[in-house]
Amino acid sequence: MSGGTSTAASGTAPAPSSPTAPPRPAPSAVRPYSFPAFQTRILPNGLRVVVAPVHAHPVVTVLAVVEAGATRDPLGKHGLAVLTGRALAEGTATMSALELAERVESLGTVLDTGADWDSSIVQLTALTERAGDAFAVLAEVLRAPSFPAAEMQRLAEERLSDLTQIRAEPRGLADVALNRLLYAATSRFARLAGGDERSIPTITRDDIAQFHAEHFTPDAVALIVVGDCTVDAAVKLATQHLGDWQGVAPETPSPDASRRFSDCRIHLVAKPDAQQTELRLGHVAVPRSHPDYFPVVVMNAILGGLFSSRLNLNLREKHGFTYGAHSAFDWRRAASPFEVSSAVQTDKCADAVREALAEIELMRQEAVSEEELSLAVSYLDGVFPIRFETTAAIAGGLEELRATLGW
Amino acid sequence: MQIPVESYRLPNGLQVVLSEDHTAPIVAVNLWYHVGSANERTGRTGFAHLFEHMLFQGSENVGANEHFEFVQRAGGTLNGSTWLDRTNYYETLPSNQLALALWLESDRMARLLPAMTQPKLDTQRDVVKNERRWSVDNQPYGTWWEKLPALCFPPEHPFHHSLIGSMDDLDAASLEDIAEFFRTYYTPDNAVVTIAGDFSGVDARAMVETYFGAVPRGGDRPALPDMSVPFTYGGPQRDVVPDACALPRVFVASRMPVLGSDEYYAASVCAAILGLRTCSRFEQSLVRTQRVASSASCFTFDLAKGADLFVADVTALPDITPERLEAAVHAELDLMHEHGVTEKEVQRAIALTETHFVTSLQSAAERADQLSRFATYFGDPALVNEQPARYRAVTAAHVTAFARDYLARHNRATLLYVPLEDDHVSDDTVADTTEVAA
Q: Is residue B223 included in any domain, yes or no?
């Protein structure tokens, strides 16, 4: 079966005889899968509790999603939501930053806090036996953070240090430049979610406390509990620790997501001595809530989402220009960016751009083949359960729907 | 938490590990071949990794891009990775596709060479060179993972040379090399196959027999040269690297006993005390109190042969000089070496480790990889279940003894990254906008 291929065996001793290959096997009967069943309860103060009991392992993930993303940043205070998200872990009404960290880590867990465009999160995963104590800590962090001035100063300095690193990295530079070029200067999305050298120094400790007071209200929170826990137990914990929390969330913003240019342009960012060219191609696409979401996801799998996608087979497997070429949508509530990304050999950059644009054009002009379509659909269908093996991944799946659809 | 483990060998030497779990209709297949960059001969650095790429280029009954396509069409994920002393290949699929994964893995174990061609090798060589540019040459600090082992192991040691390899050595790799490496190392008696997830043991054993039973055992493999080195250098080592980075960064690596030894578990706890999460000493002292570091961590390299490495990795804040950063890190290591740790610090580290163990093993792919790892290095996959107890057995006295024995100044290798001048591109550099005909 080696046919006309030139094999590696020529000129060396013959290989030990290979056994005859059995035929490629067909799949056996499909075993059904469904996403873990979850229930939603809304407390009298508006706090939404979403519980998915999963008892396979002795762990519980608790994830609070808050309507407090970077699209709510006040003008000129870019980075406030992300900074506030990080600042949540720096102490509470009853614990200093160090005491809070000691409490969390003695429970064997890690407090993960932060924000992206649409929402903020506070998350931890603990062994079942410590889940109640961990829940109490998370609730206190959510409703009663103290934002000590010295720690806030440190976080701002850390952000500036991160920016210094981003500015020195070809990857970071390309990512920053792309968003700046995709969205109009009036759009919040043209600037970094985490803020930049101009905005960060203007943010004060009081700005952070104010942002928290305004946006962290019970009716703005979805508390997702996944793992070795019952619905009743989760609701009881939520009621005990957050039931008397009061407040009303402000109105949801409608961010400007207009694009900067209406024609196809090439932009160059000079980085002398770079060993490769970081390439980004993109445009402002559709919001997550778009009725064509699923066809768009399947289209992207064919174009650049899979290893066997057109872009990767072309730029990597056919031409060897790169270690990989991918495309993706960064889904959010507003019009989301679509982006092709690849790091290509510098002297092949023009060729890579030409090939990538040609692949996008081909996708626009001609229907995909049945074979490509079935590959993408069966892949996306088959990997669905693989995406949700852990309590954190299940909670993350629910969080994504909450964050990008407001469900 | 205990994961079920069944282990046996086929007559051809293949070690088979089965671990059933019917939580979700998913199955993970994971193969470890006991070969890595340490097995490369002179002038062929990077070959083990280039070879890993070639294993995705088809085999006698699998076309050039079909390996990926078959698995993805079945609804599965897949990849492979190369390390100093092992190479692994793995896929996770819907459980009704287990036979497909085993068929694919056995076709390339038994019948790779008929599919190997010069154009495929040439393309993958270009892909790997671009992988090198991307992950090593065009990343700030990207060279650390070849410079650190080079500093810590003597030139003749198999861990000394670069895993991803030099461009010249990649150019020199031939189809002859592919054939020889394959026949020598990609044999059932040099491999472990682990299946974890939703399957029945009876069916899985039958499938393994069908697909792997007739693969012939390999011949004699050249033994690795003596890997043993003293557990201490005997004098400080230092390398300063000017780099296209924004902030100074220092790695300090100490030699120590290998993965699996009692000292390894004490070292692992010691690393967590120094550099894992918010309460760690590096975070509290270097990042928060002294304000010299923007980030800091500490870890073991997890080498199972010769000697392992205990590594501190600390990046400066802007305006902190490389010398000041280096001095501050060594001062923390001195404190650890001279005074050891408290029981409270040990308990925090063990609690974090315990949670990590349970949460990571929720994933079938992770269970399979850990089982293959313990089977490959120690011949016994069931050692996975003993890990929490090994950590719980560590006391403050063990960690203090480890620090006393292995973290002295004469057992530290320092790799210091120093920013080149003027390596800063501001937002305003994105001014060069050229219109093209659309």
A: no
* B100 with A25: Cβ contact below 8 A: yes
Contacts with B145 (C-beta within 8 Å, 6 or more apart), sequence order: B136, B163
Q: CATH topology of A39-254+388-405 equal to that of A277-368?
A: yes
Q: What does the pLDDT average to over A183-197? A: 97
B255 & B202 share domain? no
Q: Where are the domains of chain A?
A: 39-254+388-405, 277-368
Residue B51 sits in the same domain as residue B194: yes
Domain shared by B198 and B282, yes or no: no
Q: Label the pairing between strands B308-316 and B413-419.
A: unpaired
Report CB contact under 8 Å: A21, B216. no
- The domain made up of A277-368 has a fold known as Cytochrome Bc1 Complex; Chain A, domain 1 (3.30.830)
Give B130's contacts in chain A (Cβ within 8 Å).
276, 320-323, 343-345
Cross-chain residue pair B429–A270, CB shorter than 8 Å: yes
Query: Cβ–Cβ of B25/A271 closer than 8 Å?
Result: no
Per DSSP, the three-state class of A99 is helix
Residue A329, beta-bridge partner list: A338
CA distance linking residue B24 with residue B199, whole number of Å: 10
Record: contact B133-A343, CB cut-off 8 A: yes
Minimum Cα–Cα distance from B367: chain A residue: A389
Is B438 a domain residue?
A: no
**Contact of B138 with A275, CB cutoff 8 Å:** yes
What's phi and psi for A167, nearest 5 deg? Answer: -65, -20
Tell me if B337 is assigned to some domain: yes
Architecture of domain A39-254+388-405: 2-Layer Sandwich (3.30)
Tens digit of each residue's pLDDT (9 = 90 or more) over B347-392: 999 999 999 999 999 999 999 999 999 999 999 999 999 999 999 9
Q: What is the ipTM of this complex?
A: 0.91
The whole domain housing B164 covers: 6-212
Q: Taking CB atoms and an 8 Å cutoff, what residues of chain A touch B60?
A: 1-2, 18, 21
Chain A and chain B share a number of CB contacts under 8 A equal to 300
Asked whether the predicted pLDDT for residue B302 surpasses 70, the reply is: yes
B327 with B365, same domain: the answer is yes
Residue with tokens 């889904």: A331
- List chain B residues with CB under 8 Å of A167: 246, 424-426
Quick one: B268 and B363 in the same domain? Answer: yes
Q: How far apart are CA A324 and CA A346, in angstroms?
A: 14
Angle at B368 between CA B362 and CA B372, to 5 degrees: 140
- Residue A71: predicted pLDDT: 97
Chain A contact for B418 (CB, 8 A cutoff): no
Residues B203, B60: one domain?
Answer: yes
Angle at A357 between CA A356 and CA A359, to 5 degrees: 65
Residue B15 lies in a domain: yes
Closest CA to B88 of B363, B371, B286, B296: B371
Smallest Cα distance from B103 to chain A, Å: 7
Q: Is A294 exposed, middle or buried (CB count within 10 Å of its CB: 0-12, 13-18, 19+)?
A: exposed
> How many domains are contained in chain B?
2
CATH code for the domain of B140: 3.30.830.10
Rounded CA-CA distance B144/B142 in Å is 6
Is the entire prediction scored with pTM above 0.90?
Answer: yes
Give the B window 104-163 contacts with A, CB below 8 Å: 107, 110-111, 113-118, 122-131, 133-135, 137-140
Asked whether residue B12 falls in the same domain as residue B143, the answer is yes
Q: Is the model's pLDDT at A1 over the cut of 50? A: no
Tell me whether residues B294 and A162 touch, CB distance under 8 A. yes
Candidates A1, A17, A18, partner chain B, best to mutate (most B CBs within 10 A): A18
Could you report how far apart the first and last alpha carbons of chain B are, in Å? 60
Instruction: State both tokens at B152.
Output: 């810590």
Does the beta-carbon distance from B279 to A101 stay under 8 Å?
yes
Q: Within this chain, do residues B39 and B165 fall inside the same structural domain, yes or no?
A: yes
